[in-house]
Design a protein that fits this description.
Elements (H helix, E strand, L loop, with lengths): L1 H10 L23 E5 L7 E5 L3 H29 L3 H5 L13 H12 L1 H4 L3 E6 L5 H14 L4 E5 H10 L9 H10 L2 E5 L9 H16 L4 E5 L3 H5 L1 H7 L4 H7 L2 E6 L4 H11 L3 H7 L2
Parallel strand pairs: 3-6, 3-7, 4-5, 5-6
Antiparallel strand pairs: 1-2
Length: about 290
């Protein structure tokens, strides 16, 4: 057995004496490998020379590790994108084509900060509420697209789509499993939850799903960006908190990890339609009604 071990150590490059070692040339780069003295693994007090890994091999191994991490992350991103709602619409939403209007300033600043300081903010998310059609979804989608470009896995999904897809997993022929959807929501670097609390009535099962996602992401130290059409009065009302469960635990667990922003901008869809009807520009219509 000892002879076999000695042969193995010699094959790995260990010298058979404590004298100055023979040069060992790296077969990859042709340079001489550095050697150090260590105690023989099963001969106490006996020193032997062994070569250390060549810098070129170490660099190659690091590159392979980076590539492996890249491919794993890319797979996670693709998995997250697969779950996202209306991907064609979402991909087109950027800060460059974002229509800046009065009342959107705080929302835009918050999302840009959340993108710029994504790692530092950890589980600190954003809750943006206000009138429908006033830029909340476009702004959060633009931020999510920037994070995707930086290599993060981002899911953008509407509440209705999320709950419908979870419910559909009960169908034997459904292509998505409950665990696949839930795992994606929990593992994505960022979950953008559009139209949060838009459901008029929530079944107990749906309330439980919502809690699982919010609680799971909090435990994983990962953020949620949520948009909602709640009014300021609804946002402050106890009834809103109790809609998710009779003790308000889900609502307050979410709020504890959020910067809450009231988006004061008016409904752009309404402004666009009214401006067309009156024969004026959207900016002119907005200025008349501010």
């Amino acid at each position: 057995m000892e002879a076999i071990l000695e042969k193995t150590l010699k094959n790995l490059g260990m010298s058979d004496s404590s004298d100055n070692p023979k040069p060992i040339i790296c077969k990859h780069c042709g340079n001489e490998r550095e050697q150090i003295q260590i105690e023989h693994p099963f001969k106490k007090g006996v020193m032997r020379w062994v070569p250390i890994i060549c810098p070129c091999v170490e660099k190659q191994m690091e590159e392979q590790k980076r590539l492996q991490e890249f491919y794993e992350k890319r797979a996670r991103i693709n998995k997250a994108l697969k779950l996202s709602s209306s991907m064609d619409d979402i991909k087109s939403m950027t800060f460059e084509n974002f229509k800046m209007r009065k009342g959107l300033e705080t929302t835009l600043d918050e999302i840009k900060d959340a993108v710029e300081n994504f790692e530092q903010r950890k589980k600190l998310g954003v809750f943006i509420f206000g009138e429908t059609g006033n830029g909340k979804s476009h702004c959060t989608a633009a931020g999510g697209n920037e994070l995707i470009e930086k290599g993060y896995a981002v899911i953008f999904i509407t509440e209705k789509d999320l709950l419908s897809r979870l419910a559909a997993t009960k169908n034997y022929n459904n292509t998505e499993s409950f665990n696949e959807i839930m795992s994606a929501c929990l593992e994505a670097d960022l979950l953008i939850w559009d139209d949060f609390m838009s459901s008029q009535r929530l079944a107990n099962e749906e309330k439980d799903w919502i809690f699982q996602i919010i609680n799971g992401r909090e435990r994983a130290n990962k953020p949620i960006w949520a948009t909602s059409n709640l009014t300021p009065d609804e946002f402050q009302a106890d009834a809103t908190a109790y809609k998710l469960d009779d003790k308000g635990r889900t609502w307050w667990r979410l709020m504890a990890n959020m910067n809450c922003i009231y988006n004061r901008a008016a409904n752009y869809r309404k402004s666009k339609a009214m401006a067309r009807a009156l024969g004026v520009s959207v900016d002119e219509y907005d200025s008349r009604n501010q």
